[in-house]
Amino acid sequence: MPAQRTRQPPPITCVPRSTVDPLLHKDVDGLLKDLKFASRRIQTAGVSFVDEMRILERLYYKNKNQHRSAPFFKRMSEIRRYGQRLVELNVWERAELLRTSFFGLTTIADINQKATKGAWSFIPDIAHVSFVLERLQSCSVLVNKVYHSQR
Predict the structure, then answer these.
(1) Helix axis angle, 91-101 relative to 25-67, nearest 10°?
(2) For residues 87 and 74, what is the distance between their CA atoms, to the nearest angstrom?
C-alpha cells in the first residue's frame, strides 16, 4: 500500500446561526447558493473524471509491458499519476460536505436532499473551511501543472 500523501481532514464542528451577525445572513445565503452550484458542477465533473480514469487505468494495464519505453506511453503514465493524485484529493466530496455543514450535516452518510432544503442553521468552523480551501488550491495547482506540461 503506497504512503498516504494527504493529511486527514479536521473534524467538522459547527456553531449556531445565532452567533453570526444578522447583517451577514444575506451574504451567507448568496455564498451558499454559489457553493451549491459549484459543488454540483464539481460532482458532475468528478463522476465523469473517475470513469475516464478507470478507462485510462485499463489501457495502462493492458499495454504497459508492450509499450513501456515508448514516449507516448511515458506521457500516458505521467497523466495517470496526476489523475490518481487528483482522485486522492477528493474535492467533489469535500465541497459537498462543506455546503451541507451549513445545515448541520457532518458526514457524507448524513447527506440527503431534504436536509438541505430549508434555511441554513449552522456555520462550520474555520479549520474545516481552511482545509477545504487548501484542497481546492491543491487541485488547482495540479490541474495547472498538467495543463502546462502538455504544451
Answers:
(1) 160
(2) 20
pLDDT in tens, 78-95: 999 999 998 888 888 889
- Among residues 93, 18, 85, 80, the alpha carbon closest in space to that of 52 is found at 80
Please write the tens of the pLDDT for every residue from 12-71.
Answer: 888 999 998 999 999 999 999 999 999 999 999 999 999 999 999 999 999 989 988 898
Residue at 5: amino acid letter: R
104's torsion region: left (phi>0), alpha (psi -120 to 50) or beta? Answer: left
User: Which amino acid, 147?
Assistant: Y
Residue by residue, DSSP assigns 29-89 as: HHHHHHHHHHHHHHHHHHHHHHHHHHHHHHHHHHHHHHHTTSHHHHHHHHHHHHHHHHHHH
Residue in the block written with cell 477528493: 90
